[in-house]
Predict the 3D structure of the following.
Amino acid sequence: MVKQDMKLIVDGKRLDGRRFDELREIKMSVGVLNRTNGSAYVEWGKNKILAGVHGPRELHPKYLRDPTKAVLTCTYNMAPFSVDERKKPGPDRRSVEISKVISEALGHVAVLEKYPNTGIDVFVEVLQADAGTRCASIVAASLAMANSGMPMRDMISACAAGKIDGEIVLDLMKEEDNFGECDLPVAISPRRKEIVLLQMDGKLTREEFKKAYRLAIDGAMRVYDMQKKTLIESMKIEE
Ligand code: ADP
């Protein structure tokens, strides 16, 4: 994270008018794709993210199988048109890292032991990116997995907090991510009281870290409530 000369807080407000503890607008839906076992679409500020789940299905080649549980694989991909400058298609270091952290976060809650020798593939397609895509992707992937009917011990939620112009704020958007001092994405399993992702890009003092960490968890809890509401709504039978 490079600090440059750009004011991110003007008259006590952020560039997009948000308060320090305010989330961007979030919309979510599930069951949006017909040929997956489960799917979700999340708009989080200017981020637009689709997630689809395939499986559990018999895993080939056989040597990849685990006789004790399903093998969960997540693939995070940013479309070439998802950012201002065309992004080179295909995987890069960043997408490999984010794929790994999403797989690990979901692996904490999916009851993989129920489906030995199978594979479960989670595909996350970032159609438009504006910072915070790993958190939004975890939220979308978790919703898609729940939508697939996969038994889960909990849902995973996520949100970032960070530091801009010396202030701790919730849910950084792109300019804040680019020109701020620190970004701290956190993913949680509230029912199990587990942190399933914690990364930090930048520097914070111990006190600032505590404040940002609490703020991120508070944001993730608000997103968790939205996820639950979305799933409950999707299961309502129309009369
Ligand atoms: P996150 O999206 O989880 O915040 P990063 O901090 O790595 O992950 O990225 C911040 C933002 O930078 C992304 O959401 C995206 O808007 C932008 N970005 C990431 N990779 C690229 C890229 N290759 N080209 C242009 N912008 C990018």
Q: What stands out?
A: DSSP finds four helices and twelve strands in the chain. The chain has one domain: 16-235. The helical segments are 93-107, 133-148, 174-179, 206-235.
